[in-house]
Sequence to fold (334 residues):
Amino acid sequence: MIVVSGIQPTGNLHLGNYLGAIRQWVAMQDAMQADDTCLFFLADLHALTQPLVPAELAANTIEMAATLIACGVDPDRAILFNQARVPEHSELAWLLGGTARVGWLNRMTQWKDKAGKNREGQSVGLFTYPVLQAADVLLYRATHVPVGDDQKQHLELARDIATKFNTDFAVELFPQPEPYISPAAPRIMSLRDGAAKMSKSDPSDASRINLIDDDDTIAQKLRRAKTDPEPLPDDPAALAGRPEAQNLVTIYAALARQTGEQVLATFAGKGFGQFKPALADLAVAELSPIRARLTQLLGDRAEVGALLAQGAARARTLAAPTLLAAQRASGLQI
Ligand code: TYM
Fold:
């Protein structure tokens, strides 16, 4: 198994990133066998596709690397690095730019959502973003890519790019990367709107639980989370049409490592006045130790930077042969 995944260092991590992606990363790392490799990276090159403040990008990269370590990513076992330190990502992305089709990129929902009506005013990078993402996984010949549901389409594109590259150049270079989407938390929704995903770009901080929120803030955000006046049902099917209630039950189940049925068996007939404090207790119990480890790690940012540099050196030794093979296939090298 070659497991690869990334996250953009564009601010704080939230509960959606944690339950949808990072907890899976850690589980896969912990279940790793001798022949397996796990690579996790901060997608700092991807962050360049949106307006940014350079000093903030550098600081966020260190802070988010520290957050990943605090969540359980172990730089001794997994290869943890930032993308910009492994130039093979950009080089392979350029090669794959010859393979990807404009029509494929035009269909990407994330591009359509982010560009909105102002396509002409977007950076070229925002449009070609999924090609770099394909390079990220194909560079390591990834077999498994643990992501939230919102990244599924980008992974399907990576599979199409892999197939077309192999076919066009008559090689068996890239295996098909398999998206691994957490069954427990494929898409955590906003606390203010059950139809929108929890996201760091939501202007309302009350819409998300940040991994750096203190215990009181976590409890307060959950207490104020939008719900409906009905009590919880005994059957998960009865949550259909109640997106906010459904989301809180999903979060509870993911945190408690239970099924929705199990959660409803405990809370059926009870109102949110009882459910929300129990959910807050669970969230605090999970996130408070992570925050404590993070505070400790941020006491030595240089050490986190050194860990990233070591990770990048390890990643480059794995990336170089694939890039060379892709260059040979394309006629750039003999
Ligand atoms: P990013 O930084 O937006 O999110 C990082 C990971 O968190 C997941 N996620 C969620 N999961 C469940 N519910 C949510 N509300 C939620 N919000 C975010 C995302 O699905 C993702 O797994 N393009 C990627 C970064 C990337 C990447 C890659 C990922 C670059 N190259 C190669 C995998 C492989 C992104 O912007 O994720």
Notes: The CA atoms of residues 141 and 174 lie 6 Å apart. Strands lie at 2-7, 37-42, 79-82, 144-147, 178-181. The radius of gyration is 21 Å. Residues 5-8, 16-17, 20-21, 43, 46, 133, 136-137, 145, 147-148, 150-151, 185, 187-188, 197-199 surround tryptophanyl-5'AMP (CB under 6 Å).
